[in-house]
Amino acid sequence: MRTNAFGVWIVNLIVLLFAANAYAKDYSDYKICRFNNESRFAYIISKLKDLAMIKQDYEFDIWAKSKSHEVMDVRIHNDILEQFPDCTIIIEDLDAAISETKSSTQEGPFSNSGFQDFFDSSKKPKDIFFNEYRDLDTIYTWLDLLQLSFPNLVTVEWTGQTFEGRDLKALHISTNNVEKNPDKKTIIITGGVHAREWISVSTVCYTIFQLLSRYGQSDTETKFLDHLDFLIIPVFNPDGYVYTWTHDRLWRKNRQQTYFPRCFGIDIDHSFDFQWTGSNNFPCSENYSGESPFEALEAESWDEYVNKVKSEYNIHGYLDFHSYAQEVLYPYGYSCDALPRDLENLLELSYGLSKAIRRKSGKNYHVLSSCEDRGSDLQPGLGSGSALDYMYHHRAYWAFQLKLRDTGNHGFLLPAKYIVPVGEEIYAAVQYFCEFILNPDL
Ligand SMILES: *[C@@H]1O[C@H](CO)[C@@H](O)[C@H](O)[C@H]1NC(C)=O
Ligand SMILES: *[C@@H]1O[C@H](CO)[C@@H](O)[C@H](O)[C@H]1NC(C)=O
Ligand SMILES: [Zn+2]
């Protein structure tokens, strides 16, 4: 009886282990195409839409359509590729590119390296954490351990719950220095709004790592943390992020039920209540905005947290990390006709961020308005309801969205060896941002 039960347990375990792989969405029938002729983009999209009507497998996904590079990258089914003669294939083997972002040894948080490896003997975090992308459990445990390592600096704060019941967590870094930061000047940094943009999550963690480990060691970081509070959310979309680890590496939205039974997920970055338009898009679409603003639970909880729980904090800066395209985007996203306040300084700061990155790594990040990136210059409503616009309009004096590396060789599937280089160049931009905000002349 005992042995039997144990046997059943083993079989179940094996089934589970295999299932984890069997469930993972297979992309072997797709390639990533790049198109260079801008005047043909509209035609290509409408043709793709027609083909997608014929057969569900022909669903396509626009990965990037950016003004700064004048290219459009699209995931297209192999069977219809020949109908697009001007396609240049940039990712031939999508499944191989996907597995390159996952470590071969990593199965769970504890299998690869125990948490003791992530901290040195004096409880300081170590950079080995950035050798690989980390799953949600590992990141959340890492945040909890940071709180233990820096009890006078770090608080993990619960900001709400996702549709699938996961915790939404923010890291509040504060020296509670009432003398040096009397009016609670605060910088907010978020990543992982879009589930598949793993590099945005690792880069937020890298920023946390740098700020904390340099405090008290370097004059710069000591000044930042004494004079500023930081509210940092590495994984804005936990359900989606977990889903990209277990089911579909290229998932983008959250995992909320929609009115359409078979389609899950709201695009969180179309859910914020500023210039929200419930564009006539379908719940199955990658950029589905929901039926009303703040329907995405993550956006709603965030609003509650920042605007109610943290209402006495003065948000001077907001940085939202995404990928990919290597761009510094300034508001607004919803319309190119809407002029942001203080445009001149906003531009100066944008170019400063881009220059800080270039000086660090030589990488070029284009500066442009978010509306151009989101296509709202071509079609109104495309860029509506973004976190950037909402935060800029309601809470943060300075606000940017940074689209991290690369420019398309790997797209959303940036291999783990780039985690540190991207972390370093973006951290240089974060330092510039803090210096700018602490500049007494502004
Ligand atoms: C781009 O497409 C337009 C419209 O199809 C065509 O007239 C033009 O020659 C193309 N340009 C290039 C550089 O291929
Ligand atoms: C969503 O994306 C599709 C293409 O994938 C596009 O046609 C549509 O206009 C987009 N809608 C919004 C609201 O961004
Ligand atoms: Zn994104």
Low-confidence stretches: 1-20, 108-112
Q: How many domains comprise the coordinates?
A: 2
Overall spatial form: globular
Give the class-level CATH name of the largest domain: Alpha Beta
Helix count equals: 12
Number of DSSP strand runs: 12
The fraction of residues assigned to DSSP E strands is 15-25%
User: What is the ordering of alpha helices and beta strands?
Assistant: HEHEEEHHEEEHHEHHEEHEHHEH
For CATH, the homologous superfamily of the largest domain is named as Zn peptidases
How much helical structure, as a percent, in the residues? 25-40%
| Each distinct ligand | 2-acetamido-2-deoxy-beta-D-glucopyranose, zinc ion
Mean pLDDT: 91
> How far is the first residue's CA from the last residue's CA?
75 Å
Question: What about the largest sheet?
Answer: 8 strands, mixed
Going by helix content, strand content and strand pairing, the class is: alpha/beta
What's the gyration radius in Å? 22 Å
CATH topology of the largest domain, by name, is Aminopeptidase
- Using the 3D structure, state the CATH architecture of the largest domain: 3-Layer(aba) Sandwich
The strand order across the widest sheet is: 5-6-8-7-9-12-10-11
Describe this entry's structure for a reader.
The protein has 442 residues and is of the alpha/beta class. It has 2 domains: 32-90, no CATH class; 122-437, Zn peptidases (Aminopeptidase, 3-Layer(aba) Sandwich), CATH 3.40.630.10. It is 36% helix and 17% strand. The chain has 12 helices and 12 strands. The strands form 2 sheets. Strands 5-6-8-7-9-12-10-11 form an 8-stranded mixed sheet, with helices on both faces. β10 (327-330), α9 and β11 (366-369) form a beta-alpha-beta unit. α5 (198-214) packs across α6, α6 (219-227) crosses α12 and α9 (343-361) runs antiparallel to α12 (419-438). The model is unreliable at 1-20 and 108-112 (pLDDT under 50). Bound molecules: 2-acetamido-2-deoxy-beta-D-glucopyranose (2 copies) and zinc ion. This is Inactive metallocarboxypeptidase ECM14. Keywords: Disulfide bond, Metal-binding, Secreted, Signal, Zinc. Belongs to the peptidase M14 family.
